[in-house]
Amino acid sequence: MWFEKNTKKKMQVKCQWGCPFYMYASNVKRFGPDNMVVKTLNPQHICSPIVTSHFLTYRRVAKEVKERLLVDEDWWSRKGIHKHIKDTYNMDVPMQTITRGKRAAMKMIEGPYIEQYNKLAAYRKELLRSNPRSTVEIMTEMDGLVRRFKMMYIFFQACKEGWMKGCRPLIGLDGCHIKAHHPGQLLTAIGVDANNGIFPIAYAMVERESEETWTWFLEYLQQDVKIERDSSYVFMTDKQKGLDNALKGYYFVLKIFV
Ligand SMILES: [Zn+2]
């Protein structure tokens, strides 16, 4: 449908050529300046139910898809968004509007994410206040004039105590993907408690799993669990993505069985 007339006082709506749908509405003084009254209406359509709509703006598309894109930006392709709008609203929106809408939605999401990175230092402070004697380390590097996030390592005091007092001398190391707007990887160290249950030790958020990031992780971990000479720990790993090389430094000193 389209507006043949669209002013504050009058509104005339028509459908595709050949379709008898017609609506005329105008302002009636006694209902106030913001109200319109439909004077003529022929609601019968004989046109195809799906028509290209230019009324759904890219901003509306952005609003519609923002929440889902927040979970996973790859989750929705442009084609998928197009189909969703067609199924939900019976509107065939031009692909250009979808493209602009998706881009606008990504921008809306990007803002809050960057702000969250800026709050990391405050987050660390709060973690240390509420969990005294924990280890929370943030690594950043300068990229020109911008400080870039590299890694965040967290080992809660409660986990330290629990691990030292009640766990077997076994450390499982593995990494997994973080699927979000700013993807990264999660490095984890887990132990096994006296009931053979999995016990969380430490974890870190990094850009990607590599020898460099595993080396940092192990350095922090070593300080935290006070791995010393002559102590015997078993490390369980998949020996992937640099983890085997990062661990090599510990073989001889610690009599680690791999
Ligand atoms: Zn029609």
Question: What distinguishing features does this structure have?
Answer:
3 domains, disordered C terminus, alpha+beta, 258 residues, 6-stranded mixed beta sheet, elongated
What is the topological layout?
Layout: E1 2-6, E2 10-14, E3 22-27, E4 36-42, H1 58-71, H2 78-89, H3 95-118, H4 120-130, E5 135-143, E6 146-155, H5 157-166, E7 170-178, E8 184-192, E9 198-206, H6 211-225, E10 234-236, H7 243-248, H8 251-254
Parallel strand pairs: 7-10
Antiparallel strand pairs: 1-2, 2-3, 3-4, 5-6, 6-9, 7-8, 8-9
The protein binds zinc ion.
The site of zinc ion has 6 residues, from loops.
Please explain how this structure is put together.
The chain is an alpha+beta fold. The protein contains eight helices and ten strands. A hairpin with a 2-residue loop joins strand 5 and strand 6 (146-155). The protein is elongated. It folds into three domains: 1-47, no CATH class; 50-114, no CATH class; 120-254, no CATH class. Residues 252-258 have low confidence and may be disordered. It has a six-stranded mixed beta sheet, with helices on both faces. A four-stranded antiparallel beta sheet has the order 1-2-3-4, with no helix packed on it. The structure holds zinc ion. Zinc ion binds at residues 15-16, 19, 21, 45, 47.
Distance between the termini: 70 Å
Gyration radius, rounded = 30 Å
Helix content: 25-40%
**Which ligands appear in the coordinates?**
zinc ion
Task: Report the uncertain regions.
Answer: 252-258
Number of domains: 3
Average pLDDT: 83
Oligomer: single chain
Can you list the strand order of the major beta sheet?
5-6-9-8-7-10
